[in-house]
Amino acid sequence: MPDVAVIGIGMLPFGRHPERTVVDMGTEATLLALQDAGLPPARVGAGFFANALAGRLFGDMTIGQNVFGEAGINRIPVINVENACTSGSTAFYLAYNAVAAGQVEVALAAGAEKMCVPGFGLINSGENELETKLGLVTPASFALRAMRHMAEFGTTPAQLAAVSVKNRRHARHNPMAQFREPVTVEDVLTAPMIADPLTRLMCCPIADGAAAAILCSTASARRMQRAVQVKAAVLCSGSYENPQDLVRWETDYRVCRLAYEKAGVDPADLDLVECHDAFSIAEILHYEALGLCLPGEGGRLAAEGETALGGRIPVNTSGGLLSRGHPVAATGLAQVCEVITQLRGEAGQRQVAKAKIGLAHCAGGDKDGDTKSSTVLIFAV
Amino acid sequence: MVKEGTNRLSPVEEGLFTPPPYTESPPKLLGGYCRKCRQHYFPRPRHCRRCLDPVEGASLGSEGKLYSFTVIRTRPPLGLPQPYGVGYVDLEECGLRIFGLLDPGAVDRLRIGLPVRLAVAPLGHDARGERCLRPYFTPMEAD
Lengths: 381, 143
Ligand SMILES: [Zn+2]
Prior knowledge:
Shape of chain B: globular
Strand content of chain A: 15-25%
Oligomer: heterodimer
Order of helices and strands of chain A: EHEHHEHEHHHHEEEHEHEHHHHEE
Low-confidence stretches of chain A: none
CATH class of the largest domain in chain A: Alpha Beta
Largest sheet of chain A: 9 strands, mixed
Mean pLDDT of chain B: 93
CATH architecture of the largest domain in chain A: 3-Layer(aba) Sandwich
Structural class of chain A: alpha/beta
Number of helices of chain A: 14
Bound molecules: zinc ion
Number of strands of chain A: 11
Radius of gyration of chain A: 19 Å
CATH superfamily of the largest domain in chain A: Thiolase/Chalcone synthase
Helix content of chain B: under 10%
Order of helices and strands of chain B: EEEEEEEE
Distance between the termini of chain A: 19 Å
Shape of chain A: globular
CATH class of the largest domain in chain B: Mainly Beta
Radius of gyration of chain B: 15 Å
Low-confidence stretches of chain B: none
CATH architecture of the largest domain in chain B: Beta Barrel
Distance between the termini of chain B: 15 Å
Mean pLDDT of chain A: 96
Helix content of chain A: 25-40%
CATH topology of the largest domain in chain A: Peroxisomal Thiolase, Chain A, domain 1
């Protein structure tokens, strides 16, 4: 099985792009990734395109062929991917598999989303699901985890706020992030309450955006100095067992463990992590599942600065979803872009010194108190 | 807790709870049970997810304890009240931990461990905008 490397990345600054379509944004990210890899479009052997919402919002479908067609990529397998918040990282997983299986020499993963439209409202996990009909909206599913985490481990609102404060501080040096102004713990705690105990500044904002990555076999990448190895790409659904423990998230722990096993690394080997901080409590739960701290200690880890730039294990040096915003199907690939940028040593003022091993973690969708999909990608130089 | 109109409105989804009126006995949650796996389900699936045998209908009772809760204070979906509460309830009879709405009149009295009981009333509207019956949990203790 050939080893796989990332040889090109590209993304648009996340934010409001009222004049641009999903196809337009996806095409630009794809072209940027090709340019970064120094490859002509004809070299791409398979393309995976992620989008989660355009079918519902704009009546679009099979957008990947439109995006890749615009970028001059034709006559290849093109697969459209929807996997909630992991749509982009699932496209990456599929591109990785296509190269690892020897099916193609070069594969492309791209994701684009347009959400900043009037009346978007709160996101849910599907209109026809019982939980949605009974009032579950995505912020509530994480608020329920936060309430339980506070009750069981003594996690405080100030610790939840510390995650938002840290990620905004990181975003200051990331031109791709939508919100780059610093916020204080006070700002976060006094922001309007969305779902107790999560205030608006503990919930990621929506955004328009696109991101892409180009993968090839390590053998072909050998002469490319900026290539980054993919050590593991893991995708899993939940267990949907009942009862679910909302704070010892079995699926999250399982997916992280599987990725570490495949990559042959330990949590202590990591130099940086991008994780799915859709809500500040989510980042805390992911610290625990990733083994960055013991179960229950995630709040303290954030508040004591261990996951800040300069700390023991910097998390979300990009500013995370909390600062970038969360164009659903582009997020997973934006995380890849950040980890690759860091491992190439090209992250400028937010660079983690001597970064050699990085991890991107994504999770999305609610089902039966569990996640619909979870991905962990581990990279190394 | 039977309010006016309860008998005429459709449930948000069929088969979740015993139908009104509740003059004789209070509402109970309905789900499924696999005898072979001794596993309860809510809502009732066609097949057991473990052994794939057909699942029989079962009452899941009406009482439980609040495992976690939150109050959603932003603009609500589906015509639900602002604010409204949701939570996970550990059901007494079957041990399932299920997601549900909480009594909108009790959002200030919620706490983890609170004993709650099922109620059914007109609450919000369905996807087509028609008012409908929803199950929710209300504190067993008086105010
Ligand atoms: Zn069974």
